[in-house]
Amino acid sequence: MDSYHFETLAIHLGEEPDFFEGTGDVVAPIHLSSTFARERLDEFPKGYRYSRIANPTRDVLEKKLAALEGAKYALAFSSGMSAETAVLVALIRPGGHLIAFEDLYGGTKRVLDLFKKKYSIEISYVDATKVEEVVESFTPKTTLIWLESPTNPLLKLCDLEAIAREAHKHNIKVVVDNTFATPYFQNPLEFGVDIVVHSTTKYINGHSDCLGGAVVLSDDDLYEELSFIRKSTGGVLSPFDSYLTLRGLKTLAVRMRQHQENALKIADFLESHPKVAKVYYPGLKSHPQHELAKRQMRDFGGMLSFEIRGGAREAQRFVESLELFLLATSLGGVESLISIPAKMSHDYLPPEERKRLGIEENLIRVSVGIKNAEDLIGDLQRAFERI
Fold first, then answer.
1. Catalytic: which of 73, 105, 243, 280?
2. Among this protein's residues, is 280 annotated catalytic?
3. One domain for residues 225 and 324
4. Mean pLDDT for the chain overall
5. Are 178 and 290 found together in one domain?
6. Is 177 a catalytic residue?
7. Is 281 a catalytic residue?
């Protein structure tokens, strides 16, 4: 099965019809049962005893996610933040030190700050586009480097291979949030990264109808620890949400190709528009890390950001004038979503911190959907005319 391509694995792996004991289901059944009976006290049918520990529907999803990331294991969680929290519990030590990309999703910074207060850890937020800045932050207490590539919301990249190589010289684990790129466009484990996390709510599910998260890795000991943490804390993905995520995953490749095609057309349109000051999209030659993106990713994804000329007033008027782009938090669905990070995903950060990071009030983030690109561009053009 490992020799098959991405599209085939996403559909077929783990869902081969069971003609011996099953009924030949083409689609993995939803096992809603919370508990599983046994005939003998010390025997568990097919290893199942309680759905918080393991569930057949969730197992199929985990098998697929591991294969698509080129990993040995995957664990599905109830949300992306639940997945992130489990990783932090496994890798953070009281009084320890971690390094994080300064350009991160606001929710990730919020949970990092929580751990900082609760466990007296030190956090060094660095510009991880510069490998030397990451390395200079190493201390004897450093256990973890937390990265996004591309980042949310400024679409910055970091050299995953170079950072992982330097980190492993000091026995430091590297975690990458691969939500923006998805396994279709990027596999961080190939570059030596230890753990990949996903908000499966986003592209992997792709239909904005369920929450979920995943941790993907190949380390046996870490897998056992993370499994124990999930079992103990209970942040598992439900059987029904596992089914919804499986259904979305089957079309991930097709959707990502369309997201990417539309995003590049829209990025080109925005870059040439007189009311746009700057566009952030790694697929543009003007992106400072375009060459790294070409080397590290198979394509550039469906997320972009841009700065509209003016300030908060112009940005708000623009996003409220759109019809096809919906003003909403989240990303990665077939619909097109638009947001103002300073007022939405990153409002947790103090204004001075946002400004330092370049998250200005005129920054607009776009999750480009799979509607017709001409229709989407027309919607943007009409909104520009209203400001």
1. 105
2. no
3. no
4. 96
5. no
6. yes
7. no
